Request: fold
Amino acid sequence: MLRHGLLKTHQLRANPVRDSSPEQPVLSKHFINPGLFLPHGPMQPTSVYTRDRCVTGIHGLDEILRGGIPYGSTVLAAGTCGSGKTTLGMEFLVRGALAGEACAHFTATEPSVKLLENIRQYAFFDMNMVDSGLINVFDMDVLYSWLGLEKASFDLDDVHALIKSIVDIVNTIGVTRLVIDSVTTLCYKIKSEQLIRDFLFTLGKKLATLGCTTILISEITSATENAHWSSFGVEEAIADGIIVMGDSERMGHLLRFLQVVKMRGTSHSRAKHAIELTPLGVMLIPMLKWGASSDNSSRWGA
Reply:
């Protein structure tokens, strides 16, 4: 019945129901039988949604990630000096290039010529991938010069110009795999933590929109080992995933290890895996618990 423009509805009321037996429980007036609202009986299990994956091609890593990195993710690869970060990043690009993907590498810690000379020792790397344009290597110093950013620190406008430049290159070439080595060196020029956060968030969002899966290589110093898995303490919160690489001491030897701490969009193992840098690429092997050093003696770092 309509009254004053409002539709009046009758409210269902449930009265308490009692049985003559004293053991019979009292049904609350708020009790609702869910079966009354299921026309086809009990709920049936539904198929589980899984995100498309960027298969890294790195031995053992895709198994740890249950199939690979979710497409469009921004992953922080943080670790100690000499832990294999650059090799991991380059193999990630090589495996993509072998599958016909366009890849890009922005180097900020060493000249591109030196980077390529060092990586050519590995049999998995083929210089023809660079010559043919499947792997595009850019020097950050050259990019700074193009943008007129040859100064000690960046302000907000500089950061936006840098983001636009990187995104334009990715969009123009059609890059689906990107490595920045290292984001730590780049962020040293951004003095504000809030500006670093905005830079990483905006860059990651725009790259994800283009369908680009990104690895940001980060250097962690021993001074931050008890506090962060990143250099500035903000990268880890922004990144979709965190891969930590470091050294574990065993019988006087330093063994490289890798551990996936975080990866949005997929289940994954959080166990430490030993790293072997072989001519054919990075190999990951589960570390035996009884052979590992105590957590106090493990080095987490840059």
Summary: Confidence is low (pLDDT under 50) at residues 1-22, 25-32, 34-38, 290-302. The longest strand covers residues 253-263.
